[in-house]
Write a structure and sequence with these properties.
The complex is a heterodimer.
Chain A (H helix, E strand, L loop, with lengths): L7 H15 L2 H4 L18 E9 L5 E2 L2 E2 H14 L4 E12 L4 H18 L2 E10 L7 E11 L15 E4 L5 H11 L15 H9 L6 E4 L4 H13 L2 E5 L7 H10 L12 E5 L4 H8 L4 E7 L6 E4 L5 E3 L13
Helix pairs in contact in A: 1-4, 3-4, 3-6
Chain B lengths: L2 H16 L46 H8 L42 H8 L20 E4 L5 E4 H13 L4 E4 L4 E6 L3 H11 L7 E4 L2 H7 E2 L2 H8 L5 E6 L15 E6 L3 H10 L3 E5 L11 H8 L5 E5 L11 E5 L2 E6 L9 E2 L7 E3 L9 E4 L2 E4 L9 H17 L6 E5 L5 H13 L3 E4 L1 H12 L6 E11 L5 E10 L2 E8 L2 E2 L4 H5 L1 H11 L5 H6 L4 H13 L5 E2 L2 H11 L11 H9 L12 E3 L4 E4 L1 H13 L3 H23 L3 E5 L6 H13 L3 E3 L11 H23 L1
Parallel strand pairs in B: 3-10, 5-8, 7-11, 14-17, 17-18, 19-26, 21-25, 26-27
Antiparallel strand pairs in B: 1-2, 1-10, 3-4, 4-9, 5-9, 6-7, 7-8, 11-12, 13-16, 14-15, 15-16, 19-20, 20-21, 22-23, 24-25
Helix pairs in contact in B: 4-8, 12-22, 14-16, 14-17, 17-18, 18-20, 19-20, 20-21
Classes of the chains: A alpha+beta, B alpha/beta.
The structure holds fe (iii) ion, magnesium ion and zinc ion (2 copies).
The site of fe (iii) ion has 7 residues of chain B, from α12 and β19.
C-alpha cells in the first residue's frame, strides 16, 4: 500500500476493496453522508442509541478473529449493552503505508462477514493513509447506530442489591489468544479468541421476557474492571463465588503459567448481566450452556467487589492502576 | 528550698525513672513546687471529657501475681472468676471505647458494680482503687458455652467444664479471648491439629501454643532467661523459642520448624482453662485464612461455625480486635515481630515537633500510625489487606485513632505502590480531609522506622532487605542500601536485578525466581536445572516471558534471592506462606556454626550494584558436588553478612540500621550485627516496632515529619 493523498489511487482503493465488500444501497449512493431511516419499518419505535470506538490490536490476525471482526463486534456489542438493536455502522480506516493489500482485503472481508452475522450495514466510511512507522498496520474506528425498543431501560442505575450477577460464557480467551500470538507463546492447547456479537443474544433475552437491569461487555480489564465500574457507578457491592466463574482449562493453565488472573483478562464476546432473582433461570436458559450465575449484588461493602474463594476465604477483586504488580513483601 | 530536700527529690525522681510502678513508663520528669492545699487524703477527681491525652492510653495486661493467687484460692470472693482484674492488670485497650479512660466509656459500662466492688473501687488503700474494668461473680461478665447456632449449652463453671472436655477430646474450641476469638485445640494431638489446619485452610504456617504453666512450657521448649522474662511480662506475648528434643508437641504445630511460638495465659480465663486441661493448646487467631480476628459474637459464630465444635464466649464486648503479639529475643534483646495485644497503644515519641500526620503503612502486616505533637501512636497489627474485612478494619482504625487524638490532621502518608489498599484509602482520606498526601518509598520507610524508634539523628546507612516493595523506578526493590539523612534517602547500593516471571506467582514459587536469576546471568546450565522443574512447553513460555519482560517485573530483593537459593539448594521450591523458603533455608543450617561466605562482587558506584552471579554459580556447583545443604545455607547467610559489612565500610558512615523483613531471620540478623560491630560500626535494629512491613507506618511518620521540618526551615530562612 502506498500513500494515498486523496488522488486516483485512493479512489482505486475504495472502489477495489471497500465498496465491493460492503455493498449496500446507502453506501453505493456515494454521498458525502449516508442518509438512513433511523426507524427501519413502521412497526419499530424507540430511542436511538449511538456509540463509537477505535480498534488497535497487535497482531491484526489472531486465532478466532482479526481486527475487522473486532471493529464490528465491539461497536455492535456496545449498542447491545444498552439493549439496542444495531442498525448501521460507519467505519474509518487509518492505514499504514506498506500494509499488504491482501491483508487489507482479508480484514475488509472479515468485516463484511461480521456485519452480516450481526445484522448491520456499514453505510459510510473514510480512509486515510499515514507514513510508514506512524501506525500499526491498520487502526479502525467504527460508529454504530441502533434502536432501543420502548420500555427497555438498561444501565447501572437499575442495579440493586439482590440482583444476580451472570456471565454469558467462559472468560479470558481473547486476551490470552492475542497475547499468545503476539509474544509467540505456545501453550499446551491452543486458545481461540471469544470474539463474537452479543446483539442477537440480548434480543433473545428481551424476547424471552428477561428483566435486564444492567449489561456490560467484558473488554479491557476483563470481568474485574467491568464489575468494579458497575459497583462504583451503582454504589453497590458485588459478591462473587469464585468456583462458579467459568474459565476454560486451557485459559486457566495459560494464566497460571503467565501469573495472570483470568478475571483481569480481556474478552471480546462476553458480557456480564445483572438481573433480578426471578429472571435468573430464564436468562441462563436463553444464554445457553456456557453461561453461569457467578454471584450477586449486595448492600454490604458498597463500591467493592469481593471474591469468595473455594476454601471459605475471600479477597477483594481490585481495579488495578496498571499491570498486575506484586504486593507481597 | 534546702539542698538536702532538692537532692531527696532528685533521688525520688531517679528511683521512679529506674523502677516505675507496674505498667507505668516515665516519659518526662518535671519537678515543681506547689502550695499546700489542705486536703490530707489521696483523691482521684472525676475526669472531664475532652482533656485527655493519648499518653495515658494503657495496653492490656495479663493477670498480676495477686489476681492469679486470688482466682486460685478457694474462699476468695473471686475464686475461679475468669474476669478478675485490678489496678495493674486486666483488659484496657481492648475495652476502651472513648477517652478519658473511665468505666462509663469502656465496654464494661453496662455492668453495674455491686456493693463489694464499689467499695473496692472507692477505697484508696485497696488494690482495686479506681480500677475501671473491675468485676466479680456477682456483678461482672459471665461465661457461656454455645454451639454454632448460638444455643447456650452451659454457663459459667459448666461452660468451662464443657470446653475442657471438648479440648481433651481433640475438638476445636473457639474462645473469646482478650482481643478477639481464638481457636484452641490439643497441641499434643496430631489428628486434632491436622483437623484445625484442614478446617481453617492453613497448610503449614506455624501455630502458636499456650502452656498452662512455666513448668509445662519448659518440658516442651528450651527457654533462655530473657525469653522467660518476655513470657512472664504483663504483655504475655507469643515468644519464639526453641522446641526441646523431647517435646510432646505434635509435628503439625509447626512443620519443618525447630522453633515454636510459646505463650502463657494472657487472661484469668485462659489461666483457668489451661490449668483445667492440664496440657498445651494450640492457640491461633479466630479467623479464616487471612481475615482479621473476629470480635463480634454473632459474626464469630457465622465465620467460625464450620471450624469450631464449641464456642466458649462471654458477655464482655471487645472494643477492637487485638491479635496476640509475637516477640523473640534477637541478638540485641527483645524484638517485637507482631505488635498488638499488650503493647498497643503505648506510644513512641517524636524528638521534634511535626504536623499531625496519619500514616497508612503497607499492604501486608498492615498498621497505621498517627503522630500528634510529640506523640506517635502505632496501631495494632491489622493483618494483610487482600480481603475486604481487613480493609474495613483499616478504615475503622484510622477513624478510631483520629478520634482518640482529636488533632486536626495536616498530612496523610502512604507507600509509593499504586495498588496497595492502604494507598487507595490514603487517597480517599486525603481528599476527604483536604490535606496533602505524601508518598514514602517502601525501603526508606523501613529504615526510617528504625531511626524513629531509636531517635537517630544525622546520617545513617540503612540496609533495607525484604521481600519486595515498590521502588522509585517502578522495579521491585528489596536489597537496598540507603544513605538516609533528614528526609532524604540516597540509593547507595542494591542487588543486581533479575526478573520474576509471573510476578506474584514467582513469589510463591521459588523455581520461577531461580529461572529469572539464571536467565539474567545467561547460565548455560539453566535449561538443565529448569528441565527438572518445568515441562518443555512451560519452559518455552517462561523463557519468552523473561526474554520480553512479559509479566516479569524486575527485582533487586534479598528476600527473592533467598527464594532462588532455597530452590537451587533443593530446600524449598514452593511456599504456602510468606517467607517460608527463607525460614526453611535458615533452619537447615542450625547446626553449622560458621562458614566461608560465598563470593559477591560489588560493581560501580552511585549506586553500587551487588552482583550475586558468582554466589549463585557456586550454589549450583556445590549442589552438584553434593555439599550438604546446611553448609550451602550457612555460606549464603555469611555472604549477606559480609556484604553488609563491606557496604558499611564503603559508605563509611558510623551508624548502620538493619531493617526489613529479612532481618526476622535470626541467623542473618546475628551474623550481620556481629560482622558490623567487629568492623567498628554502631548497629541499630528495630525492637519495639516490627522489622517487617508492620513498621512502615511508623517510618512514614518519621520521613513526613522531617520533610515538614525541612520545608518549614526553608520557608523560615527565605522569609
Ligand atoms: Fe517490606
Ligand atoms: Mg467499547
Ligand atoms: Zn491484678
Ligand atoms: Zn462485683
Amino acid at each position: 500500500l502506498a500513500h494515498g493523498g486523496g488522488g486516483r489511487r485512493m479512489r482505486q482503493l475504495i472502489e477495489g476493496v471497500f465498496l465491493p465488500a460492503f455493498a449496500n444501497p446507502t453506501l453505493l449512493a456515494r454521498h458525502d453522508s449516508a442518509v438512513v431511516d433511523v426507524v427501519p419499518d413502521v412497526t419499530s419505535r424507540g430511542r436511538v442509541a449511538l456509540t463509537t470506538d477505535s480498534y488497535v490490536v497487535k497482531p491484526l490476525f489472531f486465532p478466532g478473529g482479526d481486527i475487522g471482526r473486532l471493529a464490528v463486534f465491539g461497536t455492535v456489542n456496545d449498542l447491545a449493552m444498552a439493549g439496542a438493536r444495531p442498525l448501521h455502522l460507519t467505519a474509518a480506516f487509518i492505514l499504514e503505508e506498506g500494509l499488504a493489500l491482501a491483508a487489507l482485503r482479508r480484514i475488509v472481508e472479515s468485516m463484511r462477514d461480521a456485519a452480516t452475522e450481526a445484522g448491520v450495514a456499514i453505510v459510510t466510511g473514510d480512509t486515510k493513509v499515514v507514513d510508514r512507522g506512524k501506525g500499526d498496520g491498520v487502526f479502525i474506528t467504527t460508529t454504530g447506530v441502533g434502536l432501543v425498543p420502548p420500555g427497555v431501560d438498561i444501565g447501572p442505575h437499575r442495579v440493586q442489591p439482590g440482583d444476580a450477577v451472570l456471565v454469558s460464557g467462559d472468560l479470558g480467551r481473547h486476551g490470552i489468544a492475542v497475547l499468545s500470538v503476539r509474544e509467540g507463546l505456545a501453550f499446551a492447547s491452543p486458545i481461540e479468541s471469544d470474539c463474537a456479537a452479543l446483539a442477537s443474544c440480548v434480543a433473545a433475552l428481551l424476547a424471552a421476557g428477561v428483566t435486564l437491569h444492567c449489561l456490560r461487555d467484558l473488554t479491557r480489564g476483563g470481568l474485574a474492571a467491568a464489575l468494579n465500574e458497575i459497583a462504583m457507578d451503582a454504589n453497590v457491592g458485588v459478591l462473587l463465588d469464585e468456583p462458579a466463574i467459568p474459565v476454560s482449562e486451557p485459559v486457566r493453565g495459560a494464566c497460571e503459567l503467565l501469573g495472570l488472573d483470568p478475571l483481569h483478562v480481556a474478552c471480546e464476546g462476553r458480557m456480564t448481566l445483572m438481573v433480578p432473582a426471578a429472571s435468573v433461570e430464564r436468562a441462563l436458559a436463553t444464554l445457553g450452556s456456557g453461561a453461569a450465575r457467578i454471584g450477586q449484588v449486595v448492600e454490604a461493602h458498597p463500591r467493592v467487589v469481593v471474591l469468595k474463594t473455594g476454601l471459605g476465604g475471600s479477597h477483594t477483586l481490585d481495579l488495578l492502576a496498571g499491570e498486575q504488580l506484586p504486593r507481597i513483601c | 528550698m534546702g539542698p538536702q530536700r532538692g537532692r531527696r527529690r532528685a533521688a525520688r525522681g531517679e528511683a521512679l525513672r529506674r523502677r516505675p510502678p507496674p505498667g507505668a513508663r516515665v516519659v518526662t520528669l518535671v519537678s515543681r513546687q506547689v502550695e499546700l492545699r489542705g486536703s490530707s487524703d489521696f483523691q482521684i477527681l472525676a475526669s472531664r471529657v475532652g482533656d485527655a491525652s493519648g499518653v495515658a492510653l494503657p495496653p492490656d495486661s495479663a493477670p498480676c501475681d495477686e489476681c492469679a493467687r486470688e482466682i486460685a484460692t478457694p474462699g476468695e470472693r473471686r475464686y475461679r472468676y475468669p474476669f478478675t482484674n485490678c489496678t495493674i492488670c486486666g483488659p484496657r485497650w481492648s475495652v476502651i471505647e472513648a477517652l478519658p479512660y473511665d468505666r462509663t466509656r469502656t465496654t464494661l459500662r453496662s455492668f453495674t458494680l455491686c456493693d463489694d466492688c464499689a467499695r473496692e473501687y472507692e477505697d484508696s488503700s485497696d488494690r482495686r482503687f479506681h480500677a475501671q474494668p473491675i468485676a466479680c461473680p456477682q456483678c461482672g461478665p459471665r461465661l457461656a458455652a454455645l454451639d454454632a447456632m448460638g444455643r447456650t449449652s452451659a454457663a459459667e463453671e459448666g461452660a468451662l467444664a464443657a470446653a475442657v472436655q471438648f479440648l481433651r477430646d481433640g475438638q476445636v474450641c473457639a474462645v473469646k479471648g482478650v482481643g478477639g476469638y481464638q481457636l484452641l485445640v490439643d497441641a499434643t494431638s496430631s489428628s486434632a491439629v491436622a483437623r484445625l489446619r484442614r478446617r481453617k485452610g492453613r497448610e503449614e504456617k506455624p501455630f502458636a501454643v499456650m502452656f498452662p504453666s512455666l513448668a509445662t512450657l519448659r518440658r516442651d521448649c528450651d527457654v533462655a532467661d530473657d525469653e522467660l522474662h518476655a513470657l512472664l511480662s504483663p504483655a504475655a506475648p507469643i515468644v519464639l523459642v526453641r522446641r526441646s528434643r523431647l517435646s510432646s508437641l505434635a509435628a503439625e504445630v509447626a512443620p519443618n520448624n525447630p522453633r515454636v511460638g510459646a505463650m502463657l495465659a494472657a487472661s484469668p480465663l485462659h489461666r483457668l482453662l489451661l490449668s483445667d486441661v492440664g496440657g498445651p493448646l494450640v492457640c491461633t487467631s479466630g479467623n479464616l485464612s487471612s481475615e482479621p480476628i473476629c470480635i463480634d459474637d454473632a459474626e464469630a459464630r457465622e465465620r467460625l461455625g464450620a471450624v469450631a465444635d464449641l464456642f466458649l464466649a462471654h458477655d464482655r464486648p471487645i472494643a477492637r480486635p487485638l491479635d496476640d503479639s509475637v516477640v523473640r529475643i534477637g541478638p540485641n534483646g527483645l524484638e517485637i515481630l507482631r505488635r498488638a495485644r499488650g503493647f498497643v497503644p503505648r506510644s513512641f515519641l517524636r524528638t521534634e515537633d511535626g504536623p499531625p500526620v496519619l500514616c497508612l503503612g503497607g499492604h501486608l502486616k498492615s498498621t497505621i500510625t498517627l503522630a500528634v505533637g510529640r506523640e506517635v501512636v502505632v496501631s495494632q497489627h491489622l493483618g494483610d489487606l487482600d480481603c475486604e474485612s481487613a480493609r474495613a478494619l483499616l478504615g475503622r482504625t484510622a477513624r478510631d485513632l483520629l478520634r482518640f487524638l482529636h488533632g486536626r490532621l495536616e498530612v496523610i502518608a502512604c507507600d509509593l505502590h499504586p495498588d496497595y489498599a492502604s494507598t487507595r484509602l490514603a487517597e480517599v482520606l486525603a481528599a476527604e480531609h483536604e490535606v496533602p498526601l505524601e508518598r514514602v518509598q517502601h525501603h526508606h520507610a523501613h529504615v526510617a522506622a528504625c531511626a524513629a524508634e531509636h531517635s537517630l539523628q544525622g546520617p545513617l546507612l540503612g540496609l533495607a532487605w525484604d521481600g519486595s516493595g515498590y521502588g522509585e523506578d517502578g522495579d521491585l526493590w528489596g536489597g537496598e542500601a540507603l544513605v538516609c539523612d533528614g528526609a532524604r534517602a540516597l540509593r547507595f547500593a542494591h542487588l543486581r536485578s533479575f526478573r520474576l516471571p509471573g510476578g506474584d506467582a514467582a513469589i510463591r514459587d521459588g523455581r520461577r525466581a531461580a529461572a529469572g536469576a539464571l536467565h539474567a546471568i545467561g547460565e548455560a546450565g539453566f535449561s538443565a536445572i529448569a528441565a527438572a522443574w518445568f515441562s518443555p512447553c512451560e519452559l518455552a513460555v517462561l523463557d519468552a516471558m523473561l526474554e520480553r519482560g512479559l509479566n516479569a517485573p524486575r527485582t533487586t530483593s534479598v528476600g527473592r534471592l533467598f527464594d532462588v537459593v532455597a530452590a537451587l539448594a533443593g530446600v524449598r521450591e514452593q511456599s504456602s506462606f510468606e517467607g517460608q523458603a527463607a525460614m526453611e533455608l535458615e533452619y537447615v543450617a542450625e547446626d553449622v556454626e560458621d562458614a566461608e561466605p560465598y563470593p559477591l562482587v560489588l560493581r560501580g558506584s552511585a549506586p553500587i550494584v551487588v552482583d550475586w552471579e558468582p554466589l549463585v554459580l557456586e550454589v549450583v556447583a556445590d549442589r552438584r558436588r553434593g555439599v550438604p545443604v546446611a553448609v550451602v545455607s550457612a555460606r549464603f547467610h555469611e555472604a549477606l553478612a559480609w556484604l553488609a559489612a563491606e557496604l558499611a565500610r564503603r559508605a563509611a558512615i558510623p551508624a548502620v540500621a538493619l531493617a526489613g523483613g529479612c532481618f526476622q531471620n535470626l541467623r542473618l540478623a546475628t551474623s550481620t550485627r556481629r560482622r558490623l560491630e567487629r568492623a567498628g560500626f554502631t548497629v541499630y535494629s528495630p525492637s519495639l516496632a516490627p522489622p517487617n512491613d508492620g513498621g512502615l507506618s511508623l517510618g512514614q511518620s518519621w520521613v513526613v515529619t522531617h520533610r515538614w521540618q525541612e520545608r518549614s526551615h526553608v520557608s523560615r530562612s527565605t522569609r
